[in-house]
Amino acid sequence: xxxxxxxxxxxxxxxxxxxxxxxxxxxxxxxxxxxxxxxxxxxxxxxxxxxxxxxxxxxxxxxxxxxxxxxxxxxxxxxxxxxxxxxxxxxxxxxxxxxxxxxxxxxxxxxxxxxxxxxxxxxxxxxxxxxxxxxxxxxxxxxxxxxxxxxxxxxxxxxxxxxxxxxxxxxxxxxxxxxxxxxxxxxxxxxxxxxxxxxxxxxxxxxxxxxxxxxxxxxxxxxxxxxxxxxxxxxxxxxxxxxxxxxxxxxxxxxxxxxxxxxxxxxxxxxxxxxxxxxxxxxxxxxxxxxxxxxxxxxxxxxxxxxxxxxxxxxxxxxxxxxxxxxxxxxxxxxxxxxxxxxxxxxxxxxxxxxxxxxxxxxxxxxxxxxxxxxxxxxxxxxxxxxxxxxxxxxxxxxxxxxxxxxxxxxxxxxxxxxxxxxxxxxxxxxxxxxxxxxxxx
Length: 442
Hints:
Blueprint: H1 2-12, H2 15-35, E1 47-53, H3 69-87, E2 91-95, H4 105-114, E3 119-126, E4 136-141, H5 147-157, H6 166-169, H7 178-185, H8 192-210, E5 214-220, E6 232-239, H9 243-249, H10 252-274, E7 310-312, H11 333-353, E8 367-376, E9 394-398, E10 401-409, H12 412-425, E11 431-436, E12 439-441
Parallel strand pairs: 1-2, 1-3, 2-7, 3-6, 4-5
Antiparallel strand pairs: 4-6, 8-10, 8-11, 9-10, 11-12
């Protein structure tokens, strides 16, 4: 009935008065929409952060005179996680690795995806042929804008050369091909805007807090960021090839400061999303030595992100011993020698593979014999034709050289047999070396 009288009143009004009434209603509606603060969809959200320390294990990354990228990146990653644990109970931290182990690039992204992460932050160090190059940069997935961006992506993507069957895993991607990197860089994800936002905050912290040289927020094609279903970025904290920067980012003090920059940038991003004012004071910034953080690769994740728990997601990687192709039986005398050589390599391979299914889990304290059979100034793909039928091919670095070994043997007698077979195959300089854990026994 009320609406009926209102309608009758409106119809009885003259046209100019109707216009004034409509204008008043419109202004009131606009005023309400401007002054009313909408509820943030992120309010009281439980956040999940996956921190990825670049490289690891048999993949050292770049290096300077004293430090390796894999060690510096791990230290900063653990320090960042510690700061978050100490200060924000609404953020659950998950590491892709907390020790010196190798994790395939696609598995790092998979860890973030299966834990439904809200952020994926990769920590890396930079390198350049120009020893005077310095400064920090943060990268997101996208089309590269300069030759320098492409070179950084190629260097970081070369980690796939440590993975067998990487061409199948990454859909034919060749890390040594500029064309492949360019095409891959064209991949864009729906979280680009958020990734750029957080990256800009990180760079601002580097400059404002530490006075670091700002090398900018950039885009390039990184395999580790490929297929991540959340805002993700890769931050290059400094150049290990610059002696001054190496001393800084390799020190406990420098690593603490860098981790604080990452922490503050993340907190500002979260507060912005939650619609609250960001304040820097009141946080605990206690320095922590990385070897005092208690973490383990066997920790399991939980679905309850409200728990203040640091976990390491155990990679879902099956340890399967390589299986060499069967040796063909041929009658021709010319082929008999080659067949015998393959058969001999196969026997040695099968002997060493008896423990390979466990990934040599109990061998860290034992002396293991290997045969070094070739070296290179650039990484060689593990599925390279030169390595066909050679058992347990691995790589280690010595200064600027990449050195390749075969076998994982427990006696000098077996090692000598494999050495002789490799020499017959054409690796005339093959020789026996010994390892204890990941360190070569001199």
